[in-house]
Amino acid sequence: MAEAGVKTDEQEKQEETVNKNVISSGNTELDSRIGGGLPLGSLALIEGASGTGKSVLSQQIAYGALQQGLRVVMFTSENTVRSMVKQMDTIDMSVLDFLLIRRLRVYPVEFSQGGQDSSKYLLNALNAEENADLFILDSLSVVAGSITSSAILQFFEEAKQLCDQGKTIMVTLHPQAPALMEQLRSLCDANLVLETERDGQKLVKMLTVAKIRGASSVTGAIVGFDVEPGWGMRVIPISKARG
Ligand SMILES: Nc1ncnc2c1ncn2[C@@H]1O[C@H](COP(=O)(O)OP(=O)(O)OP(=O)(O)O)[C@@H](O)[C@H]1O
Ligand SMILES: [Mg+2]
């Protein structure tokens, strides 16, 4: 029998296997709330209105993936390369070295320029990055605003095929039409919903685990969090979050 706090060989082996199959957020508390991390090979949809934490969460996952030795490509409609590095620095995620050795590539994109063809350009760009393990698209909202619902759905279907080939793709999106959201959610392997609730004077940030493939035990879990300079997402008890 193992002493309390000392892991048996079996436990260590299990954890190793688990860790190889998921992308950690680099934040142990957050990982445990989402079932260990983001499973490799998933298509993940992060939904939320402005200011709910989509970019911070995707930066956490990107940083966690880099720490695990994975190659990450970020398409951003919100940042330049410089502002992305700066933003991540403020939450204690230094990515400059990863950029220099090209384990991280950041592509600022003006999705609005592509009009109806923007999702095709984006898919071509994903296909061109053969060496990448994790793609982050933050955010797809501008693309979604300039193409039809069926084109958005088709984009997700094609992204899903890339995931079947082993890529992990994380897409952030402002909520769209409910019928479309339903279809997108059912296509995705992971679906995290970010919300900000007003509670008196206080704004409360919450992450709901709507779905994570292979981690049904955490389905429906609600995690309260704050974003803190020099730290990033800090999980806080819901009661405290609500004040
Ligand atoms: N470095 C930081 N230090 C402290 N707070 C931060 C930091 N970066 C972001 N925040 C806060 O975290 C929250 C979430 O920001 P984030 O940019 O992730 O939102 P978002 O969902 O991506 O919004 P949008 O849809 O407008 O892009 C905001 O309240 C923001 O002010
Ligand atoms: Mg954002």
Task: Describe the protein.
It is built from 10 helices and 11 strands. It has 243 residues and is an alpha/beta fold. It has a domain at 27-192: Rossmann fold (3-Layer(aba) Sandwich), CATH 3.40.50.300. The strands form 2 sheets. Strands 5-4-6-7-3-8-9-10-11 form a 9-stranded mixed beta sheet, sandwiched between helices. A two-stranded antiparallel ribbon has the order 1-2. The longest helix is centred in the middle third of the chain and has 16 residues, at 149-164. The model has no long low-confidence stretch (mean pLDDT 90). Bound molecules: adenosine-5'-triphosphate (ATP) and magnesium ion. Adenosine-5'-triphosphate (ATP) is lined by residues 48, 50-56, 78, 90-91, 139, 227, 229. The site of magnesium ion (MG) has 5 residues, from helix 3.
Write the layout of secondary structure elements.
Elements: H1 9-21, E1 22-23, H2 28-33, E2 38-39, E3 43-48, H3 54-67, E4 72-76, H4 81-90, H5 96-100, E5 104-108, H6 118-128, E6 134-138, H7 141-146, H8 149-164, E7 168-173, H9 178-187, E8 190-199, E9 202-212, E10 222-228, E11 232-236, H10 238-242
Parallel strand pairs: 3-7, 3-8, 4-5, 4-6, 6-7
Antiparallel strand pairs: 1-2, 8-9, 9-10, 10-11
Helix pairs in contact: 6-8, 8-9
Residues 48, 50-56, 78, 90-91, 139, 227, 229 line the site of adenosine-5'-triphosphate.
